[in-house]
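Many introductory courses stop at the sequence. We go one step further.
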Amino acid sequence: MLPVISRAFTSAPRARRTLALTLALALGAVPVTSAASAQPAAHAVEAHAAKPVANLQLVIKAQQPKDDPAYLECVATFVGTMNATPGVWAVCHGYLDSEEYTVTRRHSTATVTRGQLVRMLYRMAGSPTVKNLPKTSPYKDVATTDPDYAAYIWAADAGITSGWDDGLFHPDDYATRNTLAAFLYRAAGSPDGAARMRQIRRPLRAEAKKVEQFKTENRWAARTLGAYPEVDRNGDGAVDVVDPASPLYFSDALYMLKAYGDKGLKVVGTPVVD
């Protein structure tokens, strides 16, 4: 069914675009919303996210202007307006596969992994060619045949993340708000000065105070990108207090990525587009 949607998003008669909208709505391709839930464990990150998905190449154009006709048509096809939600924004720019977006809509409590964040940032940078790609993976938990292998090596070359200090990349481990702040801070060129390149592990009780290691990155993110959406996920009538070291919701990640893009911030290493 999804290939049909892909074909319909290209230049086509009005009837085919109408069919694309109907199918997109049937698949749940509507704005991302949050739902009541408990934070899942790292190994419980929804299974679909770990599987490589086909990029439907809806609108793959690095740093696409907001007024680009193809982008506006894609947004209108998804939601019928010119105001793109974070998920639609990501899909219509080609940063997120529409199939992956549909999965996150079906599982509104889905969390995002480190690997997924790197992949989206890599695409935001224009999916640049990685020169001298190692023939042997420097990470035991990443095979050279992994479809995102080039993105992981790019992230290390760009100084966004080189994995954990155990020598592994941990692409399937859940990301946190600390992870996102660190990735975006480095992607912006570490404007407040270099910060320690290390991802926080799952916090143990005795390590709870170590979240301070991301103070620089979190302060920059709050000052530059603003606050995360205030959401009552558990339905108790009060806005949830989220631990920055807890699993990051996909919807929250997309919200902050869109805020990054809306600020006109580029990802380090993004090719200049005339």
